[in-house]
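Module 6 notes. Inverse folding takes a fixed backbone as the condition and produces residue identities as the prediction. Think of it as a translation problem where the source language is geometry and the target language is the twenty amino acids. Below is one complete input and output pair. Work through it position by position during the lab.
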């Protein structure tokens, strides 16, 4: 009887500690590490993250916090401010916890884009 209780207790503990992931990160940490280690790979990282975002959206899953912002930052670093702005806005709209920071990013980037347009005219 003691063996059965011990085996049952161990089984409950093992299954109770199972890793249930709340979000699908799509290798985000590995992509980011590889990109920082070899900066010429950042475009590859951005593309893979974008594909992952599209896959999640098409399957009805929620994009993890920070992924939209990360893709936006990668676009900003490559010089595509308009695309960066759209991803920052997605992060702002999707994750309330991000709103204070993303509001500042959206405001500053929008202002920068507006000033750039005015200077061209």
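Target side of the pair, the amino acids:
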């Amino acid at each position: 009887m003691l063996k059965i209780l011990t085996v049952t207790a161990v089984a409950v503990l093992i299954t109770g500690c199972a890793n249930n992931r709340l979000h699908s990160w799509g290798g985000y940490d590995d992509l980011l590490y590889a990109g920082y280690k070899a900066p010429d790979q950042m475009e590859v990282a951005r593309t893979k993250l974008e594909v992952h975002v599209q896959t999640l959206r098409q399957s009805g899953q929620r994009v993890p916090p920070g992924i939209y912002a990360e893709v936006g930052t990668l676009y900003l670093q490559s010089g595509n401010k308009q695309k960066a702005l759209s991803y920052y806005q997605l992060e702002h709209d999707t994750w309330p916890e991000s709103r204070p920071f993303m509001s500042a990013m959206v405001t500053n980037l929008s202002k920068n884009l507006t000033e750039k347009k005015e200077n061209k005219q």
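Reference fact for the lab report: The chain is about 75% helix and 0% strand.
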